[in-house]
Prior knowledge:
By secondary structure, this protein is α+β, with helices and mostly antiparallel strands. It folds into five domains: 5-185, no CATH class; 201-385, Distorted Sandwich (Glucose Permease (Domain IIA)), CATH 2.70.70; 396-497, Sandwich (Immunoglobulin-like), CATH 2.60.40; 502-598, Immunoglobulins (Immunoglobulin-like, Sandwich); 603-633. Helices cover 18% and strands 39% of the residues. The strands form eight sheets. Strands 9, 10, 11, 12, 13, 14, 15, 16, 17, 18 and 19 form an eleven-stranded antiparallel β-sheet that branches. A five-stranded mixed β-sheet has the order 21-28-27-23-25, with no helix packed on it. Strands 30-37-36-32-34 form a five-stranded mixed β-sheet. The longest helix is centred in the last third of the chain and has 33 residues, at 600-632. The chain is flat and about 145 Å long. The termini are far apart. Mean pLDDT is 84; it is low at 1-12, 91-98 and 145-169.
Amino acid sequence: MAxxxxxxxxxxxxxxxxxxxxxxxEAYLKKILELKPATIMIVGNNTTVPEGYDSAxxxxxxxxxxxxxxxxxxxxxxxxxxxxxxxNRLPPGLxxxxxxxxxxxDASDPRIxxxxxxxxxxxxxxxxxxxxxxxxxxxxxxxxxxxKGVDVSFTDVELVRVLGxxxxxxxxxxxxxxxxxxxxxxxxTLPKFVKHVFTDLSKxxxxxxxxxxxxxxxxDAFERGSSLKHYYKPYDEYKNTKDVVKxxxxxxxxxxxIFYEWxxxxxxxxxxxxxxxAVDGYPGxxxxxxxxxxxxxxxxxxxxxxxxxIGYADLRExxxxxxxxxxxxxxxxxxxSYFDVMKDSxxxxxxxxxxxxxxxxxxxxxxxxxxPCDFTRxxxxxxxxxxxxxxxxALVTLEARLPSELxxxxxxxxxxxxxxxxxxxxxxxxxxxxxxxxxxxxxxxxQVGVVKGKSxxxxxxxxxxxxxxxxALVLQLSYLDEGGRRRVEKFxxxxxxxxxxxxxxxxxxxxxxxxxxxxxxKVTITNTGKIEAEYTLEVSGENxxxxxxxxxxxxxxxxxxxxxxxxxxxxxxxGLIKLKLLAYxxxxxxxxxxxxxxxxxxxxxxxxxxxxxxIAVFAIILVFKKRAGTKAV
Length: 633
């Protein structure tokens, strides 16, 4: 590989130095030492990277690890493992981005899918099979050429056989690979984590649409040909300022990168800094702030809260500054509209400035595909002009306080809270259940009526969890806003439904009883499921009285509880004790215990006969003693 200098990751102080092939060069050693590394990993054998680097670095007290292998395939596996160890230590979100999915490619004709980590395939080895199983490696379709010598009709299924039957191993074309990783790594629904405006909206005149042709191309791993961010254009009076328009963190998070913008002023000076914030609680999501004159107190690694000031917009020789939101996945980053991850409590401030809906600030993907950007001229339709003055609005939002996990068969009552964040009353407010995956709910629709401005109304729904798996509740909220327009919003709550199972064992029970006598039955109940659950033991009897007839207990997974039942025999004959274990009304286990019940009268007669027998024995003894005394006289 030709020398290409140094590539740095300043947020973690991780550097890559590419040295001339097969040559020891003191200049490169000097570059390495200037970086003041704590640990050094050398990739390659002594021929490609001479041993002189090892000894020179170790002599200076540095920790040196060399990664090599007998083949390029083995070396790439070792490098990937080291790579995972390294980037697992990065801040939340960034490590997920950099830890790309390993993909096997043909070492004789490598074609590396974008956003993947190449593992050179030469031959099937135990190490390779183990690696595929541990790291879930995929395979690029170029491997089909490499395996033509295999004595089978080559299919994806046969490749699994060739690679030792590794479960789930498949071959993908470039498009299939992208789709597979996209579905595996991109979020199914977007969370709302933007909790604060990122600038003073009173100073903003217009906002560019997501997927607009404003500025320059800003693409991701899934789309190109448009600007996948939002530009904020202040009023003219704020042009050429760098310390007037304040910029805030819109999220709670950690600052993971600060670096100079590529754009330069006429003086050659960078126009501000680029700031990246990893969002707390939502791994993989980042917020990018562009052209910021950063406060001196702001540094990489800092924790920030939504609303904390980051700096000022650098508007020198410019009309705008910008913001982007991305999800960093192993296949690459995916940009989303800033407004799609914004809480309603923030969006209401845009509604007050005349923004009708979030969709107003986006160009549909299909529409952009029909009309690609050329970025050579201004497009007025790319911008949304804000109303110069605030006007009162009605903005209704909904929160369904359904638990994130439910036990199978569990029934819960939960609150649905409706909030009008605006100042104008919302009329004809309705809520309807339009989908309940894995759940039964009632009622399915609610006529709420009027929700006054800056107020809340709540009601309750009931839900019953059905089969284990992923559950979802989709609620549709509709209302008339300040202009009499019917607004319709969907709110989705995801949850897990975990299997409920349990068993009981009889530890102690009588085999026979006398009529009227009492005894005990001892039973232990065990939660064999995956979630805390409520269990009910129902007991009934034939010819026996049982107390208590029902016992309800809550048990954590694998927890057991011993219960004691009192039973009383009623009448002579066969007795039967029936036990049923239920969870939320669903029968899980049952058992019947039989016993003999003997009559009290029979027992008295037996006692009487025994007494008569004893008396008779004493009488005989007395007679013999009397006779013996008479003979003696």
